[in-house]
Amino acid sequence: MKSVFPAVLIPLFVSVSVSGCGQDYSLSPPADSEQITVTVKVPKELQAETMQVMYRSTLCTFTDHDASGKPYSRDGYQRIDIQPVRQGLSDLYEARLAVQGGGSCEWRLSNVTFGVTYANPAQFGENVRFGTGGGVVVVFDNNNSPRGGTGIKIDGNLTIKKDYYPRVDEEFLGPYKKTVSLAGEGSIYLSYQALQAKQVHFEPVLHSDFVVYSAGPKVKKKGNYTVFTYPDGSVVADGRGGPDFQKLQSIRLAAESKK
Q1: Which of 122, 126, 142, 210 is buried deepest, with most CB atoms within 10 A?
Q2: CA–CA dist 3, 29 (Å, integer)
Q3: 48 lies in a domain?
Q4: Which pLDDT tens digit goes with each residue over 128-152?
């Protein structure tokens, strides 16, 4: 039987009080714990990010305060990092998450944050770093995720297949920086709530031949917007914070139809 945690685990934090359970707050998944398998199909040029897995406990609570300073009790929570494991020589990377976290706090799986990044951002130029995009948050209970909200509700297993485009961005206000991001549909993190899921599969489709370039203004002035240069050579500066995803899709589909 495979371990419920087949990869490297790094406990990052735990917020609990001593009331309601013993002093030992560690995770200890039972051998027969139900498991959720998270698989990422990683395109060439990208790499799987470390998964951030959140567990919660209704036994080991802690005291928080609302906006007016009034104290209230919250579930304890603990996050661990899991590095997904490559499956043979394939492009699939997998992690198995124990639903029951065990221990005296009776931890239970709450959510997981994962995704893909560029393995070598420097391919886009010296000192280029990865920016944003390519992330996913899946919630397995009725609590909000670390990114806020519970996301799109899904029945049963969850399969995500999304298109992404490289976005190379230069920023000039403040310290100069150049980044490459994964431009996709929607927010930086795709958010889902999958209460019955046993399998989560994420397949990002990278269209590396269709790069969109952006450059922020050099002078902070009304009407100075980020300039986007699309793969077809068109230039747009209409006040958008990010590239027009549907425009990128149209450019690619038009180019592919001519082949």
Answers
A1: 210
A2: 10
A3: yes
A4: 999 999 999 999 999 999 898 999 9
**Among 25-29, 37-41, 131-135, 199-203, whose mean pLDDT is lowest?**
25-29
88: in domain: yes
Domain that includes residue 157, residue range:
9-17+33-257
Q: Estimate to the nearest angstrom the gap between the alpha carbon of 229 and the chain centroid.
A: 27
pTM, 2 dp: 0.88
In a domain, residue 191? The reply is yes
Decide if 13 is inside a domain.
yes
Quote the tokens at residue 74.
């919250």
Sequence-ordered list of residues with C-beta below 8 angstroms from that of 36, at least 6 positions apart, any chain: 96, 97, 99, 109, 140, 197, 198, 199, 200
Total domains present in the chain: 1
